[in-house]
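Q: My collaborator sent me two sequences in one message, no labels, and asked for predicted structures for both. Can we handle them in order? The first one she listed is below.
A: Yes, handling them in the order given. First sequence, followed by its structure tokens:
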Amino acid sequence: MAAPGRRSSTFTRLIRHGFTDPAAAERLLDDDALALVRHDPVLLDALGASADPDLALRSLVRLAEAQPGDDERQEFLRTLVAAKPLRDRLLGVLGTSEALADHLARHPSDWHALLTYEATDLHPGVAEFEHGLAAADDQDALRVAYRRCLLTIAARDVCGTTDVAETAAELADLATATLRAALGLARSAAPEDAAMCRLAVIAMGKCGGHELNYVSDVDVIFVGEALDGVDEAQAMRAATRLASHLMRICSETTVEGTIWPVDANLRPEGRNGPLVRTLSSHVAYYQRWAKTWEFQALLKARPVAGDPALGEEYVAALSPMVWQAAERENFVPDVQKMRRRVVDNIPPGQVDRELKLGPGGLRDVEFAVQLLQLVHGRSDASLHSGSTLEALQALAAGGYVGRADAAQLDEAYRFLRQLEHRIQLYRLRRTHLVPEEEADLRRLGRSLGLRGEPVTELQQVWRRHGGVVRRLHEKLFYRPLLDAVAGLAPGETRLSPRAAGQRLQALGYADPVGALRHLEALSSGVTRKAAIQRTLLPVLLGWFADSADPDAGLLGFRKVSDALGKTPWYLRLLRDEGAAAENLARVLSAGRLAPDLLLRAPEAVAILGDPLGLTPRTREHLEQEVLAAVGRANGAEAAVAAARGVRRRELFRTTAADIIGSYGTEDSPAESDPGALVDRVGCALTALNAATLAGALRAAVRAQWGDELPTRFAVIGMGRFGGQELGYGSDADVLFVHEPREGVDEQEAAQAANKVVTEMRRLLQLPTADPPLMIDADLRPEGKSGPMVRSLKSYEAYYRRWSLVWESQALLRAEPMAGDLELGGRFIELIDPLRYPAEGLGEDAVREIRRLKARMESERMPRGADPTLHTKLGRGGLSDVEWTVQLLQMQHGWAEPGLRTPRTRDALAAAHAAGLIPTEEAQILDEAWVLASRVRNGVMLVRGRAGDTFPSDGRELAAMGRYLGYETGHVGDMLDDYRRITRRARAVMEDRFYGA
């Protein structure tokens, strides 16, 4: 024993050999079970070489204690120290897998399975595994034999005798032998069923691809045929009983545990379909009903058990359909849906630990390889492999993937699969999560050869390989497309024009020839511009393909690049500002309006790289900028041109923010509240239109009167303008009011006011590159027949004597927007008693409003329009909601201050708060109003011109779907949801407005 205060030499050696609890290890070494070998130096060296020396020693003591007698224990221990291959294999397994240590403790003689070291033992195949399972005559015996074989695979794996691909292949071969053995047991249990049918087991997924994990569902499909003279229905029932029994033999938990679940859900119709089908039934299903993902799954189909001839017939019949899948009508939208990472079902706290489904995980590599196989395998049989790594090598050899990219991806995939294997091997549980405990990470790191600082090194290597996958999995699709139109290094293989076109079509490009032409123009040459664009384009092409119109995105990028490509800040912006390139891709491919605005002044692209660039400017800020620009300009036309230029830039800012908020980016999710998007757009457009009107007013006054107009003048916003609810296609509804200055003749003042209005309208509609601002004054007293401008006294006289109820209703949304704000405020004071009449509306007024609404519904709906999809006048659309809310305002605004607002949503919320409308009905009306507003905005964004109903063009309709948050291929759901939401709103409106 060591002297007090001093550690024993054994304690010190244990620390040096990697033990984390040397005191416990000393006690274990002193255990009687290890008396024969405790002082043998080779034992400590071998334990120290294992992934977890503490676990290996504990498990070794258990195994030694479990030997049935002293003679067996002495034989075991003497062999352990004498035979290095056994020592390395056994202690390697014991230091990596607690589950296999448990198996050895229950079956202590199974260590002999690691003793043989023949050539066939180094690289066994299905025949060797079948031999190892041959003696199993029931479920428990099969489980024990399976674990014994698994022990040998794990031993070769942890000792480095096999690499990760060979290990995965051995696991698949063991699964094949196990399925055959299980089918043999099922047949022995029901010989009468076996005598009625042929049954083939087709491996799918990782088993079919010869790349199985240690713990994984084994995916299968069953195909059966009746033997001669047997009724087909009877034979299929017999085959189903055999298949079900096979699944139970493998999947059920007994005293010896379970093997793995057998999953047959990849079969036609999934769990709702019959477990076993005839070959002709399989063929008929795949010809008529199968989806793209089902053909993708068939890439790995491989007959493994049962009737081998029937299995080969199955593969021969279905294989041609796999390679024709890329020509199917829905291939592109299916691919676009499948390309999006499936992380929604991963708990947020686990995304960063997910090896399989997380960003930069195994699924990214596997999906990318499989998609490229589907696209190019129809014309190149060398790609017909079920193995991910073999297919990746074939893709590189054929020039479909860059060799350097393929090599990096191969290395990353091998590391991630090996890490997955080691995680699962510990407890033999199905998991793809990297553990969080330091002890687990230490064991994993050491098992992968990271012996310095295993935890730190493991995290670094894992993140590096995950980053490679994230970076390359998109580049994998698009880099070869650039190589197809650019010069290559000697020895590199390029995509043929046909293969490049096939790939572009598969990724959603409708005009692959045109796309290749754009790529060549953007990436050819030796300039700095071409070099940077060659780096950017693989990523941009992926973002374009994620939209409804990839061709438009690529064309828009070429136009912007042609306009700005020689500007140093532009290329630097896209290269260095991470969000700028993705934001640009989203904006260019979302429709016509935003790209049109950008291409009129491409320098506005700088907005996309500014962290605050997408934040709307306030009305005060904009008015200050516009008035300053007007003050610097030489002449009224130049002044308003400057104001309209600011408006165009702000329109682009607003559309870009709306698109990016609707689509989301890789770093920030889409806005979850559509009402917030509508409100932001409405407020931003109102602010910039108000500022533009203020600029036009200043320019018109200054050109003829200098600093001061002979009359005070105000612009009152009406309709959506006054309510701050403008859409992209909305005109600016206004009233003009003036008041003669002291000492100015009323006629002179009126003439001046009319001249100002005429000049403002002319200036704002001059044909220029900037979009015009259309002013609509038709809501003025007497409509188009009345004077364009009135004095405040004239308004007062008119409203006192002649005002009609519709005019009072229109005034609900009146709000001062430009000019003399004090005069505007007095106008509001004048009209408040009209729009919020004391004691509310009389019955005659309510009847008149209802009559006007009914007349509008019958007379103003465009001929041929679908009333269930018209956003303004259709069932449950904007008009229904707004008239319902406005009736409440006119009836109760005199008593409820919250209702005195020009904004529909605010008034609706106030009505609910005042108890005038129940919660559910208020929510129904609000949802319908927001949706209809979003549709109108979306139509303008997508088509570049205003519209009140969904577009009929398929690609435009798809773009609308993406803008509204629907995945590709769900246009029907979008239209159904719109009809359902507005139908409910119409029911509320009829009850609340018409009193039905």
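Q: And the one she listed second?
A: Here it is, processed independently of the first:
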Amino acid sequence: MSLDRSGPLTELARLGFSELGTADAELTELGELIGAPRASLIEGAGRAADPDAAVAALLRIARRDPEPIRGLRSDGDGWAALWALVGASTGFADFFLRHPQEVSALAGQGRRLPTAGELRAELLDAVGAEDGFAESGGDEAWVALRVRYRRMLARIAAYDLLSASPVDEVVGVAAALADAAGAALEASLSVARVRVSRGVGAAGLFPREQVARTSLAIIGMGKAGARELNYVSDVDVIFVAGADDELLDEIGESRVVDIATRLAVQTMRGISGIEVEPPLWEVDANLRPEGKQGALVRTLASHLAYYDRWAKSWEFQALLKARPLAGDAELGEAYVRAVQPKVWTSAARENFVDSVQRMRERVTDHIPAADAPYQLKLGPGGIRDVEFTVQLLQLVHGLTDDRIRQRGTLEALDALVTEGYIGRAEAATFSRDYRVLRLLEHRVQLRNLKRTHLMPSRPEELRILARATGLAETGQAVWQQWEAIKREVRDIHVRLFYRPLLSAVAALPAEERVLSTEQAHDRLAAIGFADPAGALRHIAALTAGLSRKATIQRHLMPVMIRWFADGVDPDYGLLAFRRISERLGDTHWFLRMLRDSSGAAESLTYVLSGSRYVGELMEWIPESAAWLADEEQLRPRTGVALQEEARAIQRRHATVDDAMRSVRALRRRELLRTAMGALLDVLTIDDISKALTTITEVTIQATLRAVRREIVPPEDEALDFSIIAMGRFGGGELGFGSDADVMYVYRPNGVDPQRAHELSMQLVAALRKHSEDHRVPLELDADLRPEGRNGALVRSLDSYAEYYRRWSLSWEAQALLRARGIAGSVKLITAFTELADEVRYPADVDPHGLREIKRIKARVEAERLPQGVDPSRHLKLGPGGLSDVEWLVQLIQLQHAHAIPELRTASTTEALKAAESAGLITDTAADRLSAAWRLASRLRSANTLLSGQTSDVLPVDRRKLDGIGRLLGYPPRSASRVEDDWLGTSRRARRVFEKLFYG
């Protein structure tokens, strides 16, 4: 007769057992050995991370000695701790198998962490230490130390495993592990003193008194120093030797160092050497001066001499977490006090930030390919990304701010948030993710009590990890959570670790890191501020108060002041920045962007100090600062997108005044976007011309739609009305500050002719009125119409046809070469273009007309140049300027466009290329003309951007000329070079012009 075991086995499966038959049998045997009911065993095992391993482990221990387990059953805390430990760690299972009596030490454990004092007392008791010397120097002392250490480690792990939220306990657990390591080193040092003074195990033989009077400080580095240690991790240390003056006089420094070195060697052996009880962890002294090649132990003076002369940047980063861990506490504190100033000034070293960044990259590059997908610590998005980021921020900003000089990663992160160096949201994410990563690291090390930083690859091990951490229900879920955290950490790491602001802060001269009122005035004057008193007022206004905004401004200001000083007009740049900051008020994104975004702060200082045009617009559109964080936002929007926005504006607004306010805002915004893109070299001169032309077209089209809706009644809707772009506008070659040359044309199309004319005049008047913008003027200039300023402002198509047939002058045909319809009736534009083509592309060229064009050009040069202006500096009308190139190209078009269709373009540059391709001018001539036209266009726009005012004259003022050069990419103090480049380029173009135009 057999019993049906399906019910119990189902329960085992539900509780997480995998090997059901084996587990069932082992539970039965274990119950019999320790006298425990099956239900009690199942309940304990069901809470374990690996129930199968837990039962198997306890059975092995019970087979060897059941009494400790049987005695622990009545202690609820100890019983739960035992199941948790053997279910999460085969390492602890093996430990209890070697030492079954240690099971009894779990009684009452799991509710709190042992304190640093308790850990030290326990481990010193284990070796019977008194006055720094252990009871014995034999190997049995080391074994006792290791067993007692693992007993204390089990208490820490029990608390960790049984906590309701182990993620929240990571900090406390890591601190306790570091305290345990310090206690173990202290106990091992007490054994070492006995061995060195008695000559045990070839340790040397020195008088006990000399050994006792020799000071050895063990400095904890890395995670041990920061009290954020793992369960099984190398403990990084540095050894410092010392002695009182009397002993030094008596035996000499070299003998003191010899004794201390032997003590250090024996201390390390006590922790890491091969004994009956396995080693605890590796004691790693490779962070000492000169690394493995350097002396194991040095005096404090020797350490400091090395750091002053030879230490590399990474060594100071390592010292960031230095803390006395064991040995002579007074000497340890003296060491830390002495090296701390060196740590916090190390970021001022040349290329410090770059060296730290490269070091992090080398760590990632050297991960074995097979390990990379599983790396918790070293891989992208791992623990090191968080730690390196926090340490670099600390080292750079800690130059001047002692409030962020913390050893622990999370403590430092909190300080960085409090002081405004990191945004709250990013810090919260970093903190949470770091805790989770450390919890995962703790659990994978607990599994076998071995040093590892790799996530499990087997599904069964992932399932156990999920249960041990409490992070997820399944192995797949815990893996997915880890992958998400890696992406999150990596994203924040890249944004913060590679901030340009870090390099800038680190590179600041010492006298500029802190702005004091006493010194700032002279310093501001020295670095280029014309009004240092005014600059100080702006700085005070920006940084005053206790708000987070003021705190961040205080961090930004030293660097931004330096960047402003590197600009064209630092005083105006700082003033504009203050105004923008005040307009944005407490807007959270602005200062966060400047602090965190790649290059946004430097870009802002550059555009504000380099351009009043941009500064004045940004004061009215401060949200435009956000574009600096994304280069794509600095590229012009398409004409289609702008048209859609303009049409949406008109749908929302019932009156022309309301609609035009929004259209003007659209134009200002897009002009500002284009100006910022131009200043930051995102756009070429062709991009700028195209963008400015598109913006102007969309503005005029929107204005025409708005005024037509109010002026033309439904019964006259048939009236056709169009606007024709002329000059540089027609050629699609506008620059900053260019007028919009236009002509107006209408066709009655069934409307009474007189009525049509009156309505058209009203439309023109309304267009000119509503297109006015006092901030960024838009002048609709109709002077290129027939008869110029003396002619009718608007004509019908028939009137234009009649005029051009009977009275048209040569210059009017020339003006039509750049005519292009841009707004209004498409049919009317087509008809006007056909009319214009007949006039501007004649089959037979009138020689008299050509001579007249040349005569007019000469008269323009003589009469239209402003009095007192050096002709060579006039970018438009001067020799080799825009006018020379454009008139020559237009002459060629009048002569040849009828026969060469490629010349039929409103664009000067395209027509010039077509003339070159057709062999009408040489390559050299075309290059010289093109170079002059482009340089003149760039200089003209740069002049407008710099001053905020339109001018066709190259300034004589060296400061302004230097500013124009800076905007065009010249190095500082290039006024003469800018001038020479223009004079040379225009002179070469003028020679070509005179030969081809007049010759």
